[in-house]
Amino acid sequence: MPDARLPRSRHVVTSLTAALVLLVATACGGPTPPPSNVSTDASRAVSAEIGRDGGELETTAADGTRYHLEVPPGALLARTTLTMVPVTAIADFPAAAGVAAGVDLGPDGLTLFVPTILTVEPNAGVDGLVGFAYEGDGEGLHLEPSFADGGVATFRLSSFSGYGLGAFTFAEIQSLPVPSDAGVAARQALALLVAGGGDLDAEAVALILLVWYVDGLAPLLALAEVDPGLSDAVYLRAETEFLQWFDALFSFDLYFAPPVLGDLLASERDAARSSLAAALRRGFEVHNDACLATADAGTALGHAYQAARFALAATSLNLDEPALFLDREYLWSQYCLTVAIDTVDFPDTLRPGDTGVLELTGAYRLGDGPVSFDPPLRYRVAFQGGGGFADLTGTANAFGAYVVDVTWPALADTLTLLVEACFDWEGGLVLSDADVCTETTIERTPAEEEEPSLTVFASAGGVVNAYLNVSSNPPATPYSVLDQDSASLGPPNPGSFDLDLSASGSGSAAGAAGSSRATVVGDAGLVVGASGATFTMSVDVFARGSMSSTPPSDEAAAVGFGSASGGMTVVVEGTSASYTLNVVITYDAPLAPGSDGARVTLGNIVDEKDIRSSTSVVRSGILPPGTYSFGAELVAEAGFYANPSPDYGDLFNWPETLNATMEVTFSVSQ
Asked: Could you tell me which of 94, 103, 198, 205 has the C-alpha nearest to residue 155?
């Protein structure tokens, strides 16, 4: 029945002989199919950057066929942008019915170190369909093992290319060219066994795998083992072949209970592992030595990249063990590229809920060469001890510094940070799991709560001025006496000081005679204790000015002026402080308009000014952390002014005598 579709039956192309015919023909170098052009539906293409943690891609073709790609952790050594696009047709496709389903995966030839699962789910199901694969633009099209279950076909991938399903007739299968590559020929033979349906023959599968090993895998491994530095492409081909052979051995062994392929091919399996391990070790050594011996930084980095890939491949292939002379610890101890965190700056005054700035500096070095910051190190700051807090990640700046705000979780009694710095290849390998990384731990316990503190500085002073002034022609010389005093004190020497000032003046000229006087008497003190400070001041200011005779027309004045002031500066730290303020001012006569009044100030909290009569200023409250200046000033001015200019109005309407007092108490406590 030459036009019949391939049934799900073991009676068609399932015999060991039929499968082996396809393999044996490889020795004769069968014909290679001509290149085919692949048509895709770009409107349904999807892509994603996936790294060592794995990920997924999914798309649906116009006919409803669903494609799902599951990349497991460890399948990729580097962050890679993966693409998936449905295939609509392939020129010169060997099945007349055309492509039943197909998807092109990129980048073409990408190595997958852990089998990646591609599922294809056509609307019409998968009965009678056989898997196929191709490279590039349809080159090397061949049958590929796919496993059908519940209307879904599953491919296990060790590298990227194109994959799909076709409805082949028996005659079309017979006319397929025999692949010249032993591995491709073996996978095509395995695909035919699976497509035949029914129970698989363990010996048939083992024989196909054995021929594959002898004619394909072993020669590639031997070539890669001798000199992997000759061409990395030689090694990469051997690596992919190894992955495909091992996955076929594993996946087909799942059909047998108990598994038997591992026993039947144990010596080949162990020899392949040993040979690939030797190739990996040799490849690492070749590039690592070149990295150490090369003066040019760019060239050295290229060799460092390749050496790292060999070492990471050993880890991903589970070959990094001492028995294979490829143990991970030894390889990385010899690696030409090293990373160091040079400085860690993080405050030790934080408590839960606080935020602090973490500053890190680090660099990498190639061999004994100078430190370098380009490309920058990649940092990860992880909170230890649970809580589900996300890691902080970023890269250093051009000077090798990484700065990040770290908030201490409010419910955490202690803070432990794991800081990891890794060399990060631009768009290349992600060297994680402490491969080419270094790490340090930061631990903090809550800082003691800062006790509130006060810093105080107090001062007091006074000034008096008494004078007689008579305008005449020629003018008389005024007589005046000035007396002033001031003092200051503060921690650690609290105490008090006295004010005792006086001045007087008398004289006569041009028919005028008079006298004036001013006095300041009082004291001020400061007491500083463990929990606060108190400033006190008590002053009495007296002023007098009188004239026994006045000139008939000239201006004349006899004036007494006195003032006293005091206060202190307070610096509140750690927490708020409380304060009380009590100032009592008395005047025995109103202060003249021409004089400045008394004043009481406390930072921007209290500002009572131009006080001209008896009053009290009483305040209390809270002082938040900060610096505050407190001050109190008392003024008394008295005297007589004869023949003032009309322009002055009542400016000189002074009392002849004035006595003023001020009592001040200002306290600050923690």
From this structure: 103
The closest alpha carbon to 505, from 547, 459, 458, belongs to 547
CA dist 246 and 485 (Å) reads 100
Query: How far is 662 from 585, CA to CA, in rounded Å?
Result: 5
CB 357 within 8 A of CB 347: yes
DSSP notation for 500-567:
EEEEEEEEEETTEEEEEEEEEEEEEEEEE-SSEEEEEEEEEEEEEEEEEE--SSS-EEEEEEEEEEEE
Predicted confidence (pLDDT) at residue 104 exceeds the cutoff of 90: yes
Could you give the C-alpha distances from 573 to 74, 530, 532, 533, 669, in angstroms and in order? Answer: 55, 14, 12, 14, 12
Q: Whole-model pTM?
A: 0.59
Closest to 176 in 3D by CA, of 165, 163, 189, 164 = 189
- pLDDT, tens digit (0-9, with 9 covering 90-100), for 362-376: 999 998 888 888 888
Q: Give me the residue spans of the domains in the chain.
A: 16-198, 216-315, 337-444, 453-669
> What residues are paired with 467 via a beta bridge?
480, 559
Q: Percentage of residues in the chain with pLDDT exceeding 70?
A: 81
Amino acid at 108: D
Q: Which fold has domain 337-444?
A: Immunoglobulin-like (2.60.40)
Residue among 159, 155, 194, 195 at smallest CA distance from 68 = 155
> In the structure encoding, which two tokens stand for residue 612, read together?
């001209």
C-alpha 192, offset from chain centre: 53
Name beta bridge partners: 513.
Answer: 508, 549
Topology of the domain covering 16-198: Chondroitinase Ac; Chain A, domain 3 (2.60.220)
